[in-house]
């Protein structure tokens, strides 16, 4: 089992534990804000299961029907997570609306807040691990899961700080207002996840800084060629696809042209991990006198 799959399984168990703690906090206090926090944790468990299934499928090798692999399936998991976050936010807003017109004082606030704080600490540690490992392993599903959990940590912290004032001030209306704050915050988080994942499904190019570095590598390692043009890049999960046309002298042998391509592939793979590179070699009469100049 890969490191990514182990992280995905870990998220399922951590999510279930955090949900149990947050629901206990809600049960003890009757707080709508803590209810919203617990509801979001249910989404964490569901999306952790979806992430595990996605990374499991994405790890499958390329086959006749999917010659470029199954890496894009992770983006579907991230889109699903974003949609579920939005659904949870709408449910929370509904509870906050009714709670605002029928506010009540919290029961056992101290115990409930301590339990919820413990759950948030667990979430914080795990989210940091998911984000760092997801970026290192270039897994959109794991990174998205970690970013969502980190949002959960921040909103939980805001809720806890706000709920402390209710027993002191008697401001019972603060509970549904905090729940609405949580809902709006996770709505924004869900939209961000959907937008980013759709970008991956739509074959967005590499960031401009990385593209600039790719151009420099091609320019500095294509000695013997004339130019490179029509550079295209895209992401698919942890894979990065790079393809371009390389113009060489018409009299150059196939062997020499192949050696240049091998040199370019090695240099690009040193810079871009898990890159799949396609180079189309052309004779000098195909030069466009544009694109990447060979140094």
TrEMBL record:
<dbReference type="GO" id="GO:0006882">
    <property type="term" value="P:intracellular zinc ion homeostasis"/>
</dbReference>
<feature type="transmembrane region" description="Helical">
    <location>
        <begin position="32"/>
        <end position="55"/>
    </location>
</feature>
<feature type="domain" description="Cation efflux protein transmembrane">
    <location>
        <begin position="11"/>
        <end position="202"/>
    </location>
</feature>
<feature type="transmembrane region" description="Helical">
    <location>
        <begin position="152"/>
        <end position="171"/>
    </location>
</feature>
<dbReference type="InterPro" id="IPR036837">
    <property type="entry name" value="Cation_efflux_CTD_sf"/>
</dbReference>
<dbReference type="InterPro" id="IPR027469">
    <property type="entry name" value="Cation_efflux_TMD_sf"/>
</dbReference>
<feature type="transmembrane region" description="Helical">
    <location>
        <begin position="75"/>
        <end position="93"/>
    </location>
</feature>
<dbReference type="GO" id="GO:0015086">
    <property type="term" value="F:cadmium ion transmembrane transporter activity"/>
</dbReference>
<feature type="domain" description="Cation efflux protein cytoplasmic">
    <location>
        <begin position="206"/>
        <end position="283"/>
    </location>
</feature>
<dbReference type="GO" id="GO:0015093">
    <property type="term" value="F:ferrous iron transmembrane transporter activity"/>
</dbReference>
<dbReference type="InterPro" id="IPR002524">
    <property type="entry name" value="Cation_efflux"/>
</dbReference>
<feature type="transmembrane region" description="Helical">
    <location>
        <begin position="7"/>
        <end position="26"/>
    </location>
</feature>
<comment type="similarity">
    <text>Belongs to the cation diffusion facilitator (CDF) transporter (TC 2.A.4) family.</text>
</comment>
<keyword id="KW-1133">Transmembrane helix</keyword>
<dbReference type="InterPro" id="IPR058533">
    <property type="entry name" value="Cation_efflux_TM"/>
</dbReference>
<keyword id="KW-0472">Membrane</keyword>
<keyword id="KW-0812">Transmembrane</keyword>
<protein>
    <recommendedName>
        <fullName>Protein p34</fullName>
    </recommendedName>
</protein>
<dbReference type="GO" id="GO:0005886">
    <property type="term" value="C:plasma membrane"/>
</dbReference>
<dbReference type="Pfam" id="PF16916">
    <property type="entry name" value="ZT_dimer"/>
</dbReference>
<keyword id="KW-0813">Transport</keyword>
<dbReference type="Pfam" id="PF01545">
    <property type="entry name" value="Cation_efflux"/>
</dbReference>
<dbReference type="InterPro" id="IPR050291">
    <property type="entry name" value="CDF_Transporter"/>
</dbReference>
<dbReference type="InterPro" id="IPR027470">
    <property type="entry name" value="Cation_efflux_CTD"/>
</dbReference>
<feature type="transmembrane region" description="Helical">
    <location>
        <begin position="113"/>
        <end position="131"/>
    </location>
</feature>
<dbReference type="GO" id="GO:0015341">
    <property type="term" value="F:zinc efflux antiporter activity"/>
</dbReference>
<keyword id="KW-1003">Cell membrane</keyword>
<feature type="transmembrane region" description="Helical">
    <location>
        <begin position="177"/>
        <end position="194"/>
    </location>
</feature>
């Amino acid at each position: 089992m890969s490191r990514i799959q182990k992280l995905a399984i870990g998220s399922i168990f951590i999510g279930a534990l955090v949900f149990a703690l947050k629901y206990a906090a809600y049960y003890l206090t009757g707080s709508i804000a803590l209810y919203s926090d617990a509801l979001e944790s249910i989404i964490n468990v569901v999306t952790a299961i979806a992430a595990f299934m996605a990374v499991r499928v994405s790890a499958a090798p390329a086959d006749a029907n999917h010659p470029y692999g199954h890496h894009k399936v992770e983006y579907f998991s991230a889109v699903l997570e974003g949609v579920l976050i939005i659904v949870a936010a709408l449910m929370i807003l509904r509870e906050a609306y009714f709670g605002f017109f029928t506010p009540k004082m919290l029961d056992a606030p101290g115990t409930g807040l301590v339990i919820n704080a413990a759950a948030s600490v667990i979430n914080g540690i795990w989210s940091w691990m998911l984000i760092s490992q997801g970026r290192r392993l270039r897994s959109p599903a794991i990174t998205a899961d970690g970013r969502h959990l980190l949002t959960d940590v921040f909103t939980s912290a805001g809720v806890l700080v706000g709920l402390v004032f209710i027993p002191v001030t008697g401001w019972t209306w603060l509970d549904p207002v905090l729940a609405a704050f949580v809902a709006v915050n996770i709505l924004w988080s869900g939209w961000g996840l959907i937008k980013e994942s759709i970008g991956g499904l739509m074959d967005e190019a590499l960031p401009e800084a990385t593209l600039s570095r790719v151009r420099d590598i091609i320019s500095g390692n294509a000695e013997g060629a004339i130019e490179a043009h029509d550079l295209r890049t895209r992401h698919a999960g942890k894979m990065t696809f790079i393809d371009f046309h390389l113009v060489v002298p018409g009299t150059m042998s196939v062997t020499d042209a192949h050696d240049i391509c091998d040199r370019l592939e090695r240099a690009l793979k040193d810079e871009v991990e898990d890159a799949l590179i396609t180079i189309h070699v052309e004779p000098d009469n195909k030069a466009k006198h544009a694109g990447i100049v060979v140094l």
